[in-house]
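Note to self: keep these together.
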Amino acid sequence: MINIAQSIKAINLNAEFAILEDDVKQIEWCNGTKPISEADILAKQKELQAEYDANKYQRDRAKAYPSIADQLDNIYHNGIDAWKTTIKAIKDKHPKE
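Structure:
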């Protein structure tokens, strides 16, 4: 889940603030940081969450891929076509949506 702090930093990387309980209504802007509206923060949070959700397949694939060392070993012992078969199976199991 994308939190309020991540959303604020996506809007203004240099923003300084304190926030309680990830509540957009409990933000204290510090050191002259120009406040960002609640609507803008929540809209950014929704945008970032949609992007995160859309890329789930990437995270799933990354977990499923063998290590680079194991992939190279597979290529050495079994050839590039065997490696491609292994990788394709993972891509097929976790397709882009």
